[in-house]
From TrEMBL:
Residues 1-16 form the signal peptide. PANTHER family: CYSTEINE PROTEASE FAMILY C1-RELATED. The keyword Protease applies. SUPFAM superfamilies: Cysteine proteinases. Residues 82-328 form the Peptidase C1A papain C-terminal domain. One of its GO terms (molecular function) is cysteine-type endopeptidase activity. This is Peptidase C1A papain C-terminal domain-containing protein. It comes from Tetranychus urticae (Two-spotted spider mite).
Length: 332
């Protein structure tokens, strides 16, 4: 009888039935990890943060949802059968930024990171690899939204890209006009990075001047985008957009189990909400019969599956398919 119950539970989970962990379990505890792994869901949990890191984890969640402004919604005519799997890292293998995992540091700037990463990828894709740049998350976080480390809107960042433009800037002190100045820190339980600060650090002041020694002026280094647009929550529309123009940005609700993701296809196992987070979708596929989106996070490469994760596709898991926004670059 026990084996039959386990079989029914496993099959139900694979096809989306909800089995919730008990409420009020500490999100980063061994108890949470053990409960997730014990119910036989479609993903595996593990230690990414120590329990004392919960306030810090919540600070990383800077997606405020959608603004009140309506954007144009692009609709694709789909006359072909879409591929069962797609990975932008392979489709545009010469665009190295697509596979780069960035690090927010002690900052709730996911809204800026996810959009700037998407913009950088799309410049390379639209130019057929001739123009490879890493746009500046530093500029977006510090200039694109007041109090940028306290959260922001995806629409705001795309508007800034269109009207003000963005200069180049790499990872922590790594090249470009305005590289990121908030240091990477130990999001996960490793000894490679320094421990993240216990207190909140505000975003640095907005600077409109390139670092000393950079060969261009701030104005000369600007890259601009066209008007931003949304894609409907229809998975096929999102898939067509990705395979046509490149990765897209989305925001979703983060539940208490998500920080412990390690592998597999994530779907929530609890109703406890921690906040909102923004990420970059780079592809899709199917694993053990479960359709998924392939996603790049910005919590460094020591989190999750080397900085990436998969999340269930086709059921608007955690609102994942309901907040897709993107835009095209201006190349001339």
């Amino acid at each position: 009888m026990k084996s039959l119950i386990f079989l029914v539970l496993s099959v139900s989970l694979a096809y989306g039935a909800r089995v919730f962990t008990q409420r009020n379990v500490h999100p980063l505890s061994d108890e949470m990890i053990d409960r997730i792994n014990s119910i036989g869901t479609t993903w595996k949990a593990g230690r990414n943060f120590d329990e004392a890191s919960l306030p810090y984890v919540k600070r990383l969640l800077g997606f405020k949802g959608s603004s009140l402004r309506k954007l144009q919604q692009v609709h694709h005519e789909i006359n072909e059968e879409l591929p069962e799997s797609f990975d932008a890292r392979e489709a545009w293998s010469n665009c190295t930024q697509i596979r780069t995992i960035r690090d927010q540091g002690n900052c709730g700037g996911c809204w800026a990171f996810s959009t700037v990463e998407t913009m950088s990828d799309r410049i390379c894709i639209a130019s057929h690899g001739e123009l490879q740049v890493s746009l500046s998350t530093q500029e977006m976080v510090t200039c694109g939204e007041p109090g940028g480390c306290e959260g922001g809107y995806l629409e705001t960042s795309y508007d800034y890209y269109q009207t003000d433009g963005i200069v180049t800037g790499g990872l922590y002190h790594e090249g470009g006009c305005l590289p990121y100045t908030l240091p990477p820190c130990n999001h996960s339980v490793n000894e490679v990075l320094p421990i993240c600060p216990k207190t909140y650090l505000p975003a640095p002041p907005c600077s409109r001047k390139c670092v000393a020694g950079y060969e261009k002026t701030f104005a000369e280094d600007k890259h601009y985008g066209q008007a931003p647009y949304t894609i409907s929550s229809d998975p096929k529309q999102i898939m067509k957009e990705i395979m046509t123009n490149g990765p897209v940005t989305t925001g979703f609700t983060v539940y208490a189990d998500f920080p412990s993701y390690k592998s597999g296809v994530y779907q929530k196992t609890t109703d406890d909400v921690l906040g909102g987070h923004a990420v970059k979708i780079i592809g899709w596929g199917t694993e053990n019969g479960v359709d998924y989106w392939l996603v790049a996070n910005s919590w460094n490469e020591y989190w999750g599956d080397k900085g990436f994760f998969k999340i269930r596709r086709g059921n608007d898991e955690c609102g994942f398919e309901d907040n897709v926004i993107t835009g095209l670059p201006k190349l001339s």
